Amino acid sequence: MSFFGMGRAQPTSAEKIAAVENELKVVAEMHSRMVKICTLKCIDKTYREGELSKGESVCLDRCAAKFFEAHTSISEQLQKETANRGGGGFMG
């Protein structure tokens, strides 16, 4: 089984580059969504202090951890479903 699918020849350089670019895009989008969601959830909108409070820091840490855990779980499930259908494409 190859990195990009079952029974296929080795991917070309262009396919490898496209896969890496896609992975970077997925990670950047995930990071952007995580920052937006966790900021809205955890940061006081009045910005009373220049530094994060302990509660804000803990909230951000937990939010980011849960967001990443959910993203990883979903990605793994999608990879399994793709492999079961015979696609075998790389997802992040």
UniProtKB/TrEMBL annotation:
Compartment(s) of residence: Mitochondrion inner membrane
SUPFAM superfamilies per record: Tim10-like
Keyword Transferase: no
GO MF term (any one): metal ion binding
Gene3D superfamilies: Mitochondrial import inner membrane translocase subunit tim13 like domains (1.10.287.810)
UniProt entry tagged with the keyword Protein transport: yes
One Gene Ontology term, aspect cellular component: mitochondrial inner membrane
Biological process per Gene Ontology, one example term: protein transport
Database matches in InterPro entries: Tim10-like, Tim10-like_dom_sf
Residue ranges the record marks as coiled coil: none
All residue ranges annotated as the Tim10-like domain in the record: 18-80
Keywords of the record: Chaperone, Disulfide bond, Membrane, Metal-binding, Mitochondrion, Mitochondrion inner membrane, Protein transport, Translocation, Transport, Zinc
Chief place of localization: mitochondrion
Membrane topology label: Peripheral membrane protein
Oligomeric and partner information: Heterohexamer.
Described function: Mitochondrial intermembrane chaperone that participates in the import and insertion of some multi-pass transmembrane proteins into the mitochondrial inner membrane. Also required for the transfer of beta-barrel precursors from the TOM complex to the sorting and assembly machinery (SAM complex) of the outer membrane. Acts as a chaperone-like protein that protects the hydrophobic precursors from aggregation and guide them through the mitochondrial intermembrane space.
Domain notes per entry: The twin CX3C motif contains 4 conserved Cys residues that form 2 disulfide bonds in the mitochondrial intermembrane space.
Family named by the database record: Belongs to the small Tim family.
Protein name: Mitochondrial import inner membrane translocase subunit
Organism: Rhypophila decipiens
